[in-house]
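ARCHIVE CARD
Drawer: 12
Card no.: 0347
Subject: one protein chain, sequence and derived structure
Cross-reference: see card 0346
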Amino acid sequence: MDSWGVGVLTLFFCLALAALLRKPRRALPPGPPAIPIIGNLMWLTRSAADFESVLGDLWSKYGPVVTIHLGSHPTVMVGDRDLAHKMLVQHGAVFADRSNQFSVNTAGYGPLWRLLRRNLTTEMFNPSRIRQCADAREWVLQCADAREWVLCVLLDKLRLTAASGDGVVIVKETFQFAMFCLLVFLCFGEKLEERQREIFLPLIRSRRQRKESKVPGKNSFRFCYLDSLLDLEIRRKREEAQR
């Protein structure tokens, strides 16, 4: 190894040691050894695809509550339903606050989370909205040539994967893509092709324009979850804007 590589390694370990000495250790549940930036050393030999089996081994070794590090972020994993109920239900207010996020499953407990939760419940999970999503579910099961959508996606992707991977096919990825298409259609009201994965912002703009013009498109769904979010405002911010 040349002097440049030795210098980089030395600098890395010095920074890691400084981070350990500078930050006070928090009282976290037990877990496998970890170093800053990289996280747990076990990820060097274990695959993230075996996450469930890794958790099972950790719970057997350290107990029902363990701390794992995915990179520099510690995560506490609970493997006992009674403890999970005690944490999330009996002491839910203690664990309800989260980081500065803005989605319904990551937002901190407060006006934003309550607004998103109420909107999701009334706009997507009530029976009338579920019935309106029937067209989207039917589209996922059909193609333009009247064949079932699942067969179209599965057969096409299985053929491509088999041709490019020496006959080795990972079926899970194909099913995941079909579900991805369904979720995008439910959220954005558009039929998203595989080559169009990175056009979410144009989809949002298009959906806003279509909602304002009230003219449905050829490949558009008449209602989607995004429609309910376009004009959503937190009451406090709306009152401040009116002052």
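Annotation on reverse: The longest strand covers residues 65-70. The mean pLDDT is 70.
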